[in-house]
Amino acid sequence: MVGKKRILVVCGTAIATAAVVAKAIEEVLDKRGISTTIRQCKSSEVLSLAQDADLIVTTTPVATDHGKPIIQTLAFITGIGKQAVIEELVRTLSS
After folding, report:
1. With bands split at pLDDT 50, 70 and 90, how would you rate the model's confidence at 1?
2. Which one of 2, 7, 53, 71 has the lowest number of neighbouring Cβ atoms within 10 Å?
3. For the purposes of burial, counting CB atoms within 10 Å of the CB of 17, is it exposed (0-12), middle (13-18) or buried (19 or more)?
4. For the chain, which residues make up each domain, given as ranges?
5. Using CA of residue 57, residue 61, residue 62, residue 65, what is the dihedral sign?
6. Do residues 93 and 55 touch, judged by C-beta distance below 8 A?
């Protein structure tokens, strides 16, 4: 895969949850050979930061009218459905 993929990780306040999710995504994608740049933000910042992202991963509902793929999930926090979300991440970033 050529070039780093830019991922915007969103939670309500961009403090703890976004940090946990960002680290988990970075580790998983690194193991798959996908180079990433990950930025964390709070939900109120998505519209102003989305233009620089290839993908948005969020733990909270966000606006969807910015033309970027969005994965809304708590799988990296709860562990439930984590493998399916990982596959979705890889598919989305590979397309």
Report:
1. very low
2. 2
3. buried
4. 5-94
5. positive
6. yes
Q: CA-to-CA distance for 56 and 27, rounded, in angstroms?
A: 17
| Distance from C-alpha of 16 to C-alpha of 20, rounded to nearest angstrom | 6
CB-based contact 41:49 (threshold 8 Å): yes
Tell me, which fold does domain 5-94 have in CATH?
A: Rossmann fold (3.40.50)
Q: pLDDT digits over 51-76, tens only?
A: 999 999 999 998 877 789 999 999 99
Backbone angle region of 21, left / alpha / beta, with phi > 0 → left and psi within -120 to 50 → alpha: alpha
Residues 24/17, Cβ–Cβ less than 8 Å: no
Q: Is 4 helix (H, G, I), strand (E, B) or coil?
A: coil
- In the sheet where 70-72 sits, what is the strand order? 36-42, 5-11, 55-58, 70-72
